[in-house]
Each structure stands twice: as C-alpha cells, then as structure tokens.
Amino acid sequence: MRVLITEYLRINLDTEMWECRRCGHEHISARENYKRGMLVYDRDPTEIHKPLLDTKLYERTYSPDPKWCRILEYYCPQCGTMVEAEYLPPGHPPLYDIELDIGALKLQWKDREEVKEPVIGPDLALEKVKNNRALHAGHEHGHKHGQQ
Amino acid sequence: MHDKISAEEQALLDKFLADNQLFLGPDPEIMRNHATTPRSKAEDEILKKGLDPHQVHRVRGLINAALSEAFTMVNQMGAAPGAKWGDLVTGIYTAQGDLTMIAPHGIIAFAACCFYPIRFIIKNWVNDPTVGVKDGDGFIHNDARYGGIHNTDQSMMMPLYYKGELVCWLSSTIHEGENGACEPGGMPAAAESKYDEGIKMSPFKVVENFQLKRDLVTFLQNSVRDPGLQLEDMKVKLHAVMRLRERIIAILDQFGRDALMGTLRVHLEDTEAEMRRRIREMPDGTTRVLQFMDSTLRENALQKISLAITVKDDRLIMDFRGTAPQFLNRSVNTNIASFKASLCTGLLQNIWPDLPHTMAVMSPIEIITDRNSIVDAEGEMPQSMSLMPLFKGCVVWTIPMNKLNYSVPHRYSAVIASQYDQAATFIYGGLTQHGDVTGNFCADINGNGQGARSHADGEHSVSPVFGFMCDSGEHEINEEDTPIIRLGAQRLAKDRIGWGKYRAGMGYEQVATARGSGMWGFMTGCEGSKFPSAQGLFGGYSCPSYQLMKIKGINIFEELKKNPKVVEVFDIVELMNKRPIPGGKYSSHDMGMTFELCNEGEIYMICQGSGGGYGDVLERDPALVMKDLAEDLMSHENARDIYKVVYDEKTLVVDEEATKKLRDDYRKERIRRGKPFDQFCTEWVTPEPPAHIPYFGSWDNPREIYATTMGQRVKMSADQLQGAFMLNPKDLRIMQLESEVERLQVELGAHRNAER
Fold it and tell me: What residue segments make up the domains of chain A, in order of their start?
C-alpha cells in the first residue's frame, strides 16, 4: 500500500520508505526528512526570475535580490524531477516540512482503499468568482454575458 | 495591610476594582479567545427539545437571503470606493455575540472579528447605567485593537430584541478608507505610533431609537478628511442593518424565537463538528512553512513568519513561534485577533471554501504565538499597515495544508499554490478636480493572480486574498471622482510569472498619473521587492519580485500635446528601458512608498502580482508554453530557458523529439550539479543570519529571536520579546551623504595640495 503525499512523493507503508512518484526511486525512511534523500542545488534567483529592466540603468529590475534570497532546488537523485523549490535567505537551515506519524498513517489506511491517482477537487473559490462576475454583468448592463 | 482577607472582603475588593476600572481598553479575556462560546441556557433548552432539520434548513435559507439583501443595499448605496467593489459584509450573531452567518458574498474577515466588539458591548455596556443596551440602539467601532481587520473598516452593530428579549446581533462593515490618519486613505505606512493612525473608535453607541446621534456623527466627521463619506456610509450601514432586522423579525414572526435561536446555534455546532471530522481525515503529523516579508514599508527588513501545523486526531494546532518580533515604530504589526480573522479567511478561501462562513471553523483550531511578535503585537504598537502580516495569514495555509491534505481520498476543493498576497494598488489623497478633499485607495487591490492548481494554470488577477467575491472596479468611475488618470491598465505583466508545470495566474500593470488637481499624491504598501512573496507548490517557483517605477520631472499631457506618438504603448518595461519621454527622471524603487506628491503628468507604475507555480517546469505541456507565447504572456527567452522547449519561433510548432531530449538532458544536468542533502547543509547552513541583512525572527532555534534595533543586531529569548526600534531612513541617508561629503572633501583637499 502506497499513500500519495505530494505531486512527486509517496510513502510505501509496507517498506516505510519515501518514494518518487515518477520513477519509483526509494529516497529514505518515511520516518526521516525526505529531503535527506534528495539532491540539492543553490540556485541564483535571477536565473529564474530574470531581470526585465536594464541592469545598467536600474538596481531593481523585477528580479529577487540574490544577496537576500536563494532558491534551493530539490531533485530526485534517480530521475532528476524537481520535487521542491524552497526560497530561503542565504545560509538559513532548510525546513523539515513534512513530518508524519507513520504508525498513525498505517492505522488510518488500514481500512482505506489505495489511491493510485490523485482526485481533482472542484475549484470552489473560482466558481464563486465567476458566479459573482456573471451576476455583476447582469446588473450593470441588463443583458446576459457568456460564461467567463 | 494584611495578606489574608475574607471571602466577603475579597468580593468587596473585586467589586470595587470592577466598578472603578480606569480605562476599558481592549480586554484580553475577549480578544484572545477566538472560539465560540458554550450554549446559553436558552439555546441549550431549545436544542434539547430538538429542532426539525427541514425547518432549520428553511430558516437558514431565509437568513441567508436577508443577509444577501442587506449586503446588496450597502454594495449599491455605499459611498466608500471599497463598498462599490464588495469590500464589505453583513452578519448575524447569537445573543452572546458568536458570528453565525455572513452574506454569501461578504468579506469573511470583517465578520470574523466583529464578534469581539459585540462581546465588549455585552460585557461592559449592557449593565452600565450610563450606556445600556436597548432596542433601537446601534454601536459603531473601528479600532482593530477591539476587534477588526484594520482601522479603515467601520462597523455598525445592532442588538435585535424580540418580545423584549435580546435574541441576536446584526452588523454591517465597510472598508471606508479615510480615517483621519497621518497619511490620507486610512492605511498610513508612515505611522510610528498608534497615535498617528487617525480616529480610534472603541465600541460606542451612535444610534438611539434607530436614529444616528448627530452630535457624535459631527464629531466623527470632524475627525476625518472626508466628512461626506463618513455621514453617508453611517446612514447606509444603519439602514441596511435595519432592513436586515425587519427580515429577521419576519422570520421570528413566522417560525418563532426557538427556531431562530436554535438555527443560529446549531449552525455553529454543525460547522465545528464538520471541521473536526475533516481534521480527523488528515494524517497525524506536522507540516511547516516559512514566509519572508522583506520590508517595513519604510525600509528593507527581512521578517520571518514561521508556521508549524500539527494534526493529532481531531485537533489542529497552528504554531507561529519563531516569528519576527513587533516593531515599536513601524506600522506592519498586527494584533492576534485580527491575525486569527485573516487565518479564518484563508481557510475558507484557500482550503475549504465549501464550509459555512462562520467563526465556528476556527473553534477547533489551537493557535500558539510568541507574545509581542509581529503577529501578536501589543496594543500600543502601531498597526495601521497590518495588512502586511494579515495577507500572509490569508495564504499561510496553502503550502502546509496541501502537504497534509494531499493524501486524503476525498478532496473538497482544488489543490492550489499561494495566491499573490500583496496590497498592490495605489493609495491616494489630496484635492480632487471638484475641489473636495479625499483619501482612499483603488480597486486594483482586488486583482491578485491566483496560484497555479494541480490540474490547471491559475487564473489571472482573479480576486483579493481576503475575498473571492470582490471586483477590481471601473477606472471610468474613479476618473470621474478623482484626478487619477490611467495611462495603462489591465495589461498583464508579461514574463512576471510563477513558473511551474502549471503556471500561476498573472497580475496586471497599473500606470497612473494625476490631472486637474492643485495637490495630489500617491502611496503604495507592498513588500516583495527583494524576496518574492507568493510561494510555489510541489516544485513550482514563486512569483518574481515587484517594484515601483516612476517617471518624474515631466508632464505626460504636455508631452503628448507636443508629440502624440511620444509613447507608443504604456508598457512598464518598454517605458523604463526605452525612456521615450525626453527629460524624464526614470527610477525603480521598493514597492513600499509613504505618501508622496505627484505633480501633474508625472507617472507612477506598479503591478498586481502572479501567484505561485505548481510542479516541475520540465513537466509543462509544450502546447501550453506555445499558448502563453501566442497570448504574449511570456518571451521566447523564458520559453527556452525555463521550460526547455524546442520550437519554431515563427510558427510556434514544437519539435517534440528535440524537446524531450533537451528536457532529459537537463534532468541529467540537475543530477550532476545537485549535492546530497546532508553534505549540502554542511556547506550551506550558517550559525546566524548574514550580517548584511537586517533580519527579524528565529534562525535555527525557534526560541532565539534575532532583530535589528536602533541599527544594532540583537538576539532575544522568544519568551521575552522586545519591540524593534527602527532609525529614520532619512536620518540614515543624511548620515551616509554627510560621510560621503566628508570623504570627498578630504579627497579634494588632497588633490588641491598635490596641485600646489
């Protein structure tokens, strides 16, 4: 039995290991920080959020300040999929972001059926926005608009 | 004096102290409790008798309709710009002041903190012979320290008596804007103490016999820059609440007191039970997130918000310890009650929008903070720009809750990365072209880009983080009322995107100037100019950083008269790089700007932002990349460098095979350059924050908090936080320039000596 934890991570309840959802690579024990099973790269944020203004003319160019902010990119060591992009000040300890109680997880899934592909939930907030816009369009102009 | 006193003496002493309290300030007993109160005796009796669920459903529907009608009244008649775009709410509360329901399109947060002033009124004014609470009374309030998001919002609260018994409370709240603060528009970033924040209304009676008391209205009008607005909206809120009252009385007449009171209570209890059920569905454990805010709106300062969410059975604990300490003389603090209201908003907007919009969703949640931190600031701290931490509170759920929620077999709502979380709008003030004094803000605050979803790209400029029902307004209306002219608007900010397998919704550019005013100015209140604000999810990137651009020293109207083609298109990047307007002083700044005068025809430019991206960029469907290019949302450089797609630039036809190879090679490149985590940490982690960053908050140990106060870095115990005192940026600039002048004078002297 495997439990999906993120887009790229799952926990194998039988082996108690973190696994890659793309290539099946076993990262590390599910009782550990999964990041310990990853490769990490310190990315200059200006390579991702490139300067849009002339850097000779301006200091602030829509790029983050690389002296204040770095991107830690976490890769699956087997397939190279990027599992996380963590924005931190230089030198800040990476966050232990997922720490699950594996014993409790096993109990919780004892009677559940395995989920192999994630369910897609309805985007309820967006539906409300669209309903309200349709309502507004009706009020303003007295005629119906097509669904936005 | 002796230490031991009898019970009788103690009771006498307690009564004496209660009767002679010097100042009825914000009451910690009220302000620190976000849970619903237990059933009253009356409610308990009603619920024990049992309620017909069909009737409850019917009554709930009628209350909803009544709230919606009152909301529409305020929306249509309100004078405040905020009212026109939906920045308002109407709500109904139990007799004890628990928020039960709001209008379906209302702002959750407003009502989720309005129960605090109602509880204050119940505790202090009901039995006070000089005040009292009776049928026909209405109370006003705006100070967030007594409950509220921030002091721009004003509420009208009214008790509803039926056959002599107080059965519920009703309210209406609008973001009014102007409130007589040291800067126009009601959200002064320049406030250095709470006494710079303008009028601070504790809850007081301003309506008797359903009529506004003119003497008090006059006092309030006299305290703000826009007396017309003050009067009009007090009337609008009062009459909306009175209409709501009529409708609720009709429900009482039809169904009886028990049906109404029982429905209100059962609605709270059912919601809380459903919250606990959903919490129990999630795995036990802890997920964590860090948010970094890079500005106090006066200077750059990196402030950390740290959150650990722990689920254990049906308990959910939010632990914010390790967060930055409060500022003594900067306005970006918030009190804990306002912060909890933003959490309530975020939960209902981003995680479970299908749950009833009531305070009961927060009841099962335990919240832990460090006292005197930026999210739990003490009452004397200025907090007029509390929007900074509050907007973070709205989106703080997204990352850790998706990490807890992803495994749950039933999904109640889509998995979405963080929405853009800045108040990216122009705040303005001055003399209008009609000769009126005004101060307020533009509706662009409601145009935040949506975060990317696990199944689709985010929507552009979808809504504000605090309400999915708000509209971004019509510039024509604004141009009729104020001297603001939009030179460019609603142009999506090309290349400013939270990248990912699914990209975020983008924000749009705002290019503004002023015309026809003797005196006009703007301010902006955003951070995220150095450190991006909206976070990506599961390998998606954050939004970029955003800045404020200016073209000063010109009058664009004169330039256009001279040469109508001087500016081809009001596009920020083109204007700044090509500099087409001769004689203009072009500059780029942080997006936090205190109020500044804008001469006629000078240009100010900001952007609404993108949300965070979702998933690995290498998994983005090349067809979606081509679609973004075709829609001119991004440049070819980013299509190639970020998404690694091989295609023909002219035809946008993708070479699938070459793209696959390029992406496969790039994955190998990642594996080559990445370092094992433990080794990486040994090289990366430093024992404390870099010396060049004014850093606020914990580093490796949540019990040790760093701050920079009076220019010096200090380290404090999290249990004994002190506020940070910031030096005046102008004084610092003068010091820098003086030392520069001194250095140049020495150089000049040496040069002259050498010439001799």
Answer: 2-117, 123-148
Q: Angle CA(B669)–CA(B674)–CA(B679) in degrees, nearest 5? A: 160
User: Phi then psi for B690, rounded to 5 degrees?
Assistant: -55, 145
Return the residue in A132, A136, A140 with the most chain B beta carbons within 10 A, the one to mutate for interface testing. A132
Contact of B468 with chain A, judged by CB distance below 8 Å, is answered with: yes
SS3 for A42-87 is EECHHHHCCCCCCCCCCCCCCCCCCCCCEEEEEECCCCCCEEEEEE
pLDDT of residue A146: 42
Question: Is B633 part of the contact surface with chain A (CB cutoff 8 Å)?
Answer: no
CB proximity B403 to A under 8 Å: yes
pLDDT of residue B108: 80
Reported residue count of chain A is: 148
Q: How far is CA B97 from the centre of its chain?
A: 24
Q: How far apart are CA B664 and CA B18, in angstroms?
A: 74
Residue B39 CB contacts under 8 Å (≥ 6 apart), including other chains: B47, B265
Indicate the angle between helix axes B227-255 and B53-77, nearest 10 degrees: 160
Q: Which two tokens stand for residue B209?
A: 């016999």
The burial class, CB within 10 Å (0-12 / 13-18 / 19+), for B409 is: middle
pLDDT band for A139, please (50, 70, 90 cuts).
low
Residue B319's alpha-carbon distances to B28, B47, B288, B579, in angstroms, are: 20, 35, 9, 49
The pLDDT of residue A136 is 64
**What is the least distance, in Å, from the CA of A8 to any CA of chain B?**
7
What pLDDT score does A144 carry? Answer: 47
| Distant-in-sequence, close-in-space partners of A138: CB < 8 Å, separation ≥ 6 | A144, A145
Interface test with chain A among B496, B677, B685, B686, by most A beta carbons within 10 Å:
B677
What ipTM describes this predicted complex? 0.94
- A87–B532 CB contact, under 8 Å: yes
What angle (nearest 5°) sits at the alpha carbon of residue B187, between those of residues B181 and B193? 60
For B363, other C-beta atoms within 10 Å of its C-beta total 18
A145, pLDDT greater than 60: no
Q: What gap in Å lies between CA B436 and CA B419, rounded to an integer?
A: 36
B365-368 vs B315-319, strand pairing mode: parallel
- B324 phi, psi to nearest 5 deg: -55, 150
Contact B575, A120 (CB under 8 A): no
| pLDDT per residue as tens digits for the range B317-364 | 999 999 999 999 999 999 999 999 999 999 998 899 999 999 999 999
For position B663, what pLDDT does the model report?
A: 98
Q: What residue spans define the domains of chain B?
A: 45-277
What is the distance between the alpha carbons of residues B344 and B360, in angstroms, rounded to a whole number?
Answer: 9
Residues of chain B scoring pLDDT < 70? 1-2
Nearest to A129 among B456, B463, B670 (CB): B463
Average pLDDT over residues A110-117: 94
Contact predicate B322/B697, CB 8 Å: yes
Give chain B's length: 756
